[in-house]
Amino acid sequence: MKQLAVIQDVSSLGRCSLGAALPVISAMGVHALPVPTAIYTNQTGFSRFASLGCEVLLAQYPSMWQEHGVQLDGILTGFMGTHEQIAAAQAMIDTFRRPKTLLLIDPVMGDNGQRYPIFDDAFCRAIGEFARQADVITPNITELCLLTDSDPLEFLRAPPDEQKAILTQLCAALPQPTIIVTGWKIDDLVLNAVWHRGKLNTYSTTAVAGSYSGTGDLFAATVCAALVKGEPLQAAITRAARFLHAALTEAAQLNLPPKHGVPFENHLKELLY
After folding, report:
1. Which pLDDT tens digit goes with each residue over 234-248?
2. Considering only the top CATH level, what class is 3-271?
3. Whole-number Å distance between alpha carbons of 221 and 243
4. Measured between alpha carbons, how far is residue 75 from residues 12, 89, 101, 157, 164 in Å?
């Protein structure tokens, strides 16, 4: 069975991070190895939260896993909250990445045209530098702009017929061979823009009202597990988009609070191989 290390936090409320990624990866027949960077009472989009960093524990992972002969087919990283957590994730990558180990980095920094308030410019630069080594990155529109020192609000104000050209320029400025830009909305469509082999393609689904916690984590986990299993890129993205659309549709129908995430649990069967 393929093995995939997932390096991100545990948010006990919010259907995101490891709580979202692990069920998805397991449903897809991949052995998920969680590496918690921190524990949060609830995801950081709530007005208040408490957290405990796992930096001391993180430092033990490389030696312990080496002792037990761990070999990885993939590494997925998501939300990180401190420079120390980035360094610990880097140590894991340096220790366990082999030539055929897929590295997918979700550079979590912001959304809806704004950097998350818990981060500063220095931290975003550190995330950007960390992300440069990835085989695949999955930024949203805001994060793509932050990675390229561009103004996300300027992109969002641009006419739809100009946005694809801007996206092409931004993706071409980054070193990753594959960039999957999520959350690009035009009228009643939501698009995933995929930069691969020097070309930009788009895949669209009908937009669902609202912005829900954890959707980026679910998307990244689905795509990463599919790629680790050898699924073609287009098929992996289509699988993830359909899965998310079904969960988002149910969340909207049930009028669930966006900060609590989407009821993906009811749709895991769609990911079974």
Report:
1. 999 999 999 999 999
2. alpha beta
3. 11
4. 22, 10, 7, 35, 30
